[in-house]
Amino acid sequence: MPTGDTLHPFIELYCRLGEGLWGALPSSRLALQERVADIARYQTMFIGFPVWGTTAPSIIRSFLSQHDLSGKTLVPFITHGGYGTGSSQDVVAQHAGRARLLDGFVKQCDQERETIAEVTQWLGGVQVSR
Ligand SMILES: Cc1cc2nc3c(=O)[nH]c(=O)nc-3n(C[C@H](O)[C@H](O)[C@H](O)COP(=O)(O)O)c2cc1C
Question: Which residue has its alpha carbon closest to ligand 1 atom 15?
Answer without folding.
Answer: 81
